Amino acid sequence: MPSNSVYQEATIPTQWERSWQNFRANSLAMFGLWCLLALLLITINARWLAPYSAVEQVGELLMPPSWDNSGHVSFFFGTDDLGRDILSRLLIGSQLTFGYALLIAFASSIIGLLIGILAGMSSGLKSSFLNHILDTVLSIPSLLLAIIVVAYMGPGETHILFAIWLALIPRFIRAVYTAVHIEVAKDYIIAARLDGANNFYLLYNSILPNILTTITTEMTRAISVAIMDIAALGFLGLGAQAPQPEWGAMLGDSIDLIYLAPWTVTLPGLAIMFSVLVINLVGDGMRQALNAGID
Predict the structure, then answer these.
(1) Which option is the CATH number for 95-294: 3.40.50.2300, 1.10.3720.10, 3.90.550.10, 3.40.50.10190?
(2) Three-class DSSP labels, the chain
(3) What is the pLDDT of residue 1?
(4) Which of 49, 146, 196, 295 yields a CA-CA distance of 20 to 30 A from 91?
């Protein structure tokens, strides 16, 4: 039979298990996670869930939502000024706003993580040169940088995705670069180098586990910024063009109807706010759980 010490060592939870336990104990984080999963399912299956076409007139103009006395059960969120079903436009628009934001954040995180790690583990002129370039680029707000790129390339769905992707990469590089640079200078890394450990071993076993909090924070921030930037560019008319049902574009197209048909403005705004709130709840819960798991 195994000794008590071996049995106790076998039952000690790993860092990931401790982090998951801490995450599950956070009720707000779990609420955000379930909402995020629901939002992902809606985004993936939006075209099958939408009861009507998002671009065709299917009802009367400016029909109120179904809970209003003048509304109809066939149009749960009512219709817009062209008679298009708002529920269908919100569902399909989730792919253009939330879905694209996830893709942009994931793509920018991969590039930013690779460059940030390489720069953080290097030193001398290369590291100093990259640091000065990042300082210059980061002095420009991401939305302004995206507007500059879109103004040069022209409005359009593909162009705004490329513009926001370019705007997010420098911030991810800076965060990862700073975290890795600080971690490399610590005593345990220096001791491991003297013991013969190579860069790959140090990165996989020591550095990455200790910068997961930074990666998580930047990832959730990137998704939130991408959602807001896509919506802002759509609101300004620089993003997805009519009749595409992007949430920001829906908001911009209906701003003149705020007193006549407030649901046409309120519902896209709530969709944007809800998606950003859910991402932030999950991101904060993950950061707290990882910190507690490391401790």
Answers:
(1) 1.10.3720.10
(2) CCCHHHHHHHCCCCHHHHHHHHHHHCHHHHHHHHHHHHHHHHHHCHHHHCCCCCCCCCCCCCCCCCCCCCCCCCCCCCECCCCCEHHHHHHHHHHHHHHHHHHHHHHHHHHHHHHHHHHHHCCCHHHHHHHHHHHHHHCCCHHHHHHHHHHHHCCCHHHHHHHHHHHHHHHHHHHHHHHHHHHHCCHHHHHHHHCCCCHHHHHHHHHHHHCHHHHHHHHHHHHHHHHHHHHHHHHCCCCCCCCCCCHHHHHHHCHHHCCCCCHHHHHHHHHHHHHHHHHHHHHHHHHHHHHHHHC
(3) 47
(4) 146
